[in-house]
Amino acid sequence: MVEFKSGEKVRKGEEVFNYYGGKGNEKLMSVYGFWLEDNLNEVYYLGLAGRVVEIRRRGSEEGEQFGEEVWRVLREEMYEDGGEEGEEGVVGLEEVEVLKGTLEARLKKLNEIENKIGVRGEEEVYEIKAIRGYLRGQKKVLEEGIETLEEMIEGVVDDDDEEKT
Q1: Domain range annotation of the chain
Q2: Residue 79's pLDDT is what?
Q3: What is the DSSP-derived secondary structure letter of residue 55?
Q4: Tell me, what's the pLDDT at 105?
Q5: Of 6, 44, 65, 134, which residue has the fewest beta carbons closer than 10 angstroms?
Q6: pLDDT digits over 7-59, tens only?
Q7: Helices then strands (H, E): number in the chain?
Q8: What is residue 82's DSSP assignment?
Q9: The model's pTM
């Protein structure tokens, strides 16, 4: 038996929602057994240089799309000395391009996996639907990340063009 307590009166037949906090689908699936179709708090755990960093969706309430840890680990891997000491939060074009290439490769792999998963249709079992939903969420994080990185690259290119004129 499941019992819910509310601080407010609830009318019979009224829809009630339980807020689980800003969690990605991986946590929701492993702890609660469900996923959210368009989860703004979805997280992609990216392995970089033997460490795991988090890539989030735009607008996540849980943190930045690319936290400082992503850029720090990337710099440490790319440069022997850990990268140039510069302003905190300033990211170079080379780091952006490397990360973009990495996310594109991961997105390609997820597309390949998604195409191999079972039969699509109404008769699909819940577990397959959950896996598909999870993959869509992971792909959304990567797609939004790639879009953001492309915008960052375009911003640098536009700035360079302005300096030449």
Answers
A1: 25-164
A2: 84
A3: E
A4: 98
A5: 6
A6: 888 888 888 777 777 899 999 989 988 889 999 999 999 999 899 999 999 98
A7: 4, 2
A8: S
A9: 0.79
Length of the chain: 165
Token pair listed for 157:
């290119």
Cα dihedral 18→143→62→68 (10° resolution) = 170
For 70, the token pair is 């992503």
pLDDT score, position 144: 98
Burial of 141 (C-beta count, 10 Å sphere; 0-12/13-18/19+): buried
CB contact at 8 A, 144 and 65:
yes
Residue identified by tokens 């996996």 is 113
DSSP assigned state of 26: H
Q: Cβ distance 36 to 129 under 8 Å?
A: no
